[in-house]
Amino acid sequence: MDKVAIVILNWNGVKMLSKYMDTLLEHSRGEAVVYVADNASTDESVPFLKEHYPEVRLIQLEKNWGFADGYNKALQQVEATYYVILNSDVEVTPHWLELLISFMDSHEEVAACQPKLLSVANRNAFEYAGACGGFIDKYGYPFCRGRLFDSVEDDHGQYDYTCEVMWATGACLVIRADDYWKAKGFDGRFFAHNEEIDLCWRLRMMGRKVYCIPESKVFHVGGGTLPKGNPMKTYLNFRNNLTMLFKNLPDKELRHVMRWRWVLDYVAAYETLLVNRNVGDFKAIYRARRDFKRWKKDFKADRDELQQSRVMPVVAERRPISLLWQYYIKGKRRFSELPR
After folding, report:
1. CA angle 67-151-269, nearest 5°?
2. Which residues are CB-neighbours of 231 under 8 A, at least 6 positions away?
3. Where are the strands (E) in 150-242, listed by range?
4. pLDDT band at 340; cut points 50, 70, 90
5. 8 Å CB contact between 173 and 198
6. pLDDT number for residue 223
7. How do residues 170-191 score in pLDDT, each as one tens digit?
8. How far is 96 from 243, CA to CA, in rounded Å?
9. Which of 153, 254, 278, 295 is the 20 to 30 Å CA partner of 101?
10. Which stretch of DSSP H or E encloses residue 323?
11. Quick one: pLDDT band at residue 222, thresholds 50, 70, 90?
12. pTM, to two decimals
């Protein structure tokens, strides 16, 4: 069994593989085995890897399982102490992996961690997808050290301290294999989006910890297969976020939070339609609410099991604030401005 396996899930990403694979191998050689799990790509990804990177272990999946179940299917075929879930559009830096694994080796109570995530487009700024470690507010809205909604901060070293967080980005996630499978991995029904937040929430309820290690840094392109503003991305984010809340919220909060989300989601839908003139996102939010209502019953058993087995009654990194209120009403645009 290998100690560290870096696993890249690929779907029609030959351009990103050709751009970033050399750097990954250069800065990971001798520290990890690199896998590419191909989600039934129709581009030249597979022949490209076979020709140019024969040392990379190739896992070929029979269809596009999406991000969540694609990783579940791939990781079933990987034996390692640590999985490193890495997007193909990530540029790593010297010692990135050594710093993360060293931290995990010396902190057995930690299930998962991430590096600092910076933007390829603006290398002095955080990247939207994970910045410097993630949290959620009491209504389920995700935010990060370095990013609140669409406001992304420049990196001035203001978050350069190791910090316990609620969730680590799926763009570059180090996780113990034992913890991954004890938590039952990503929820494959999500297909994509919010699956890493859901997984980390479950890990936190199990009493395990999640950290950001900013001494390690990587650069992320972001927006991959579903760029921002795509109605399918909007649909998956809303549907999966509601499902995550239904699964993981404590009993005493469930009804209150879901009632408020009903109101807030329809406000968001009509604001999208009337102010932004975005019919596609309006329909996506409407459809997400409808489909969540239809499939909610399928998650009842998951919810019952999670609530009965939870070790942590309260997850401290789920902040007891309304991010919408802080951002839109009080004008807070930086993580450091939020109430502690």
Report:
1. 70
2. 280, 281, 283, 284
3. 151-152, 163-165, 172-176, 209-220
4. confident
5. no
6. 64
7. 999 999 999 999 999 999 999 9
8. 33
9. 153
10. helix 323-324
11. confident
12. 0.95
CA distance 263 to 270: 11
* Distance of alpha carbon 150 from the chain centroid: 16
What is the percent of the chain with per-residue pLDDT over 70, rounded to a whole number? 98
CA distance 161 to 132: 10
pLDDT of 2-17, one tens digit each? 999 999 999 999 999 9
Residue 172 DSSP label: E
The residue written with tokens 């396996």 in the block is 5
Q: From the CB of residue 133, how many other CB atoms can be counted at a distance below 10 Å?
A: 29
- The structure tokens 């961690």 sit at 113
Q: How many CB atoms lie within 10 A of CB 225?
A: 17
Give the mean pLDDT of 95-121: 98
DSSP 68-89: HHHHHHHHTT--EEEEEEE-TT
| Beta strand spans in 127-195 (E) | 134-136, 142-144, 147-148, 151-152, 163-165, 172-176
Rounded average pLDDT over 118-133 = 97
